[in-house]
Amino acid sequence: MTATPARITAVDTYDVRFPTSRELDGSDAMNPDPDYSAAYVVLRTDAHDGHEGHGFTFTTGRGNDVQVAAIGALRPHIVGRSVQELCADPGSLSRDLIGDSQLRWLGPEKGVMHMAIGAALNAVWDLAAKREDKPLWQLLAHVDPEWLVSQVDFRYIADALSPEDALRLLREGRTGVAGRETALLEDGYPGYTTSPGWLGYSDDKLTRLAKQAVADGFTQIKLKVGADLDDDIRRLRTARAAVGDGIRIAIDANQRWNVDEAIEWTNALAMFDPYWIEEPTSPDDILGHAAVRRAVAPVKVATGEHVQNRIVFKQLLQAGAIDVLQIDAARVGGVNENLAILLLAAKFGVPVCPHAGGVGLCELVQHLSMFDYLALSGTTENRVIEFVDHLHEHFTAPVIMREGRYRAPLAPGFSATMREESIAAYHYPDGTFWVADRAAQGGTA
Questions:
Q1: DSSP 8-state symbol, 2
Q2: Mean pLDDT of all residues in 51-55
């Protein structure tokens, strides 16, 4: 009797929110009161191995319920699929989800619907890596290049990156992979920290955290800017005095400015030798970024955490608009689309320094950068992963930082599994934390 193949039996979703706004953690010029949140998804199966696929996308509070509903709308495409076939070809699900002719109207390939697709696909990759008993970075670094190319959607980017280009880059990237893997396991991957630089922090707290970052081995920190120029000048002066001249300081405006303001403001801060200006204007403004880049050099221009898809990244690269490309593990269509973006960056020779922080973004994106180092770019020169020391304790395999470097995760999967007790406590609005919080406030929302 032939055994029945294992299937996806359920797509469970959770609205998980943390009250980070109360300590001004994550505050910046455009987001003064973020409550870091995760629209969380778990793929359940009837396989005997007991593995589940965990994924999520990040939001900052209100609207997380909308994001959860978008993930739920994908359920008919996922439930009932063969686990083996899905894990053998996550790209098949990517094509089905992006190609849904009615849901596609809500994008296409952008915004809430695209982020939902990314969460679902990341959960598939988590499941696939667990079934292979490997961390995702290792799975990606050792699979056949031809198979990786089959996971990339080249529609709309083939004028800049063809499948042949991608295959060549991946084959070339395999040279020396064993040595790099040994180095990665021994030394980790360089990080930088934004923890000192939130806009709502006092100068004393900025100074203390900046000095601590240097003591912890970080060679780059980042400060939020853009609310008040005089305030930014004072804060940059304070930070530079705290860390000295040998530490890079990046600055991040979080889309605050018009193009002319971005140029004027960045040049006014140039005396403090900022390494890059991040998100100086709208993430959709390719020509605006190009104009800023020309006008503020040698300060570099970085963006990407709000770039909607591989097509916009393609145009930023084609226009010579950025010096640093910042992928986000949960903004675009999951691992599949981030593979396309990493390949585009490699084709154009632009370093990738991922956005992280949030809820679990550090946990996810480390896998993508480590794959890039091992099997694509082959280098960590001028490449760093953002690190923010928030909320890692809620994950079963939290990031490990030593001497300012991410240590390669060894647990199988995508490091996406949240602790059950954390979901139970912070599930909104009826988790134990939120119920107690409302009671403490006299029953108000």
A1: P
A2: 98
* CATH superfamily label, 8-134: Enolase-like, N-terminal domain (3.30.390.10)
Calculate the average pLDDT of the chain: 96
Distance CA 1, CA 346 (A): 50
Q: Is 355 a catalytic residue?
A: yes
pLDDT digits (tens, 9 = 90+) for 264-297: 999 999 999 999 999 999 999 999 999 999 999 9
Average pLDDT over residues 388-415: 97
Residue 285, CA atoms < 13 Å, CB-side half-sphere: 18
Question: For residue 443, what are the contacts with CB-CB under 8 A and spacing of at least 6?
Answer: none
Q: Are 222 and 248 in contact (CB under 8 A)?
A: no
H helices of 222-271, in order, are 229-243, 259-269
pLDDT tens profile 323-364: 999 999 999 999 999 999 999 999 999 999 999 988 999 999
| Residue 33: pLDDT over 90 | no
Domain boundaries, the chain: 8-134, 177-421
Which CATH architecture does the domain made up of 177-421 adopt?
A: Alpha-Beta Barrel (3.20)
Q: Quick one: pLDDT band at residue 427, thresholds 50, 70, 90?
A: very high
Q: Annotated catalytic residue: which of 224, 289, 390, 394?
A: 224
Q: Is 142 a known active-site residue?
A: no
Distance CA 421, CA 431 (A): 10
Compute the chain's Rg from CA coordinates.
21
Look at residue 172 and tell me whether its pLDDT is greater than 90.
yes
* Residue 230 token pair: 């005089």
Which of these is catalytic: 77, 314, 355, 390?
Answer: 355
Dihedral sign for Cα 201, 204, 205, 211, please: positive
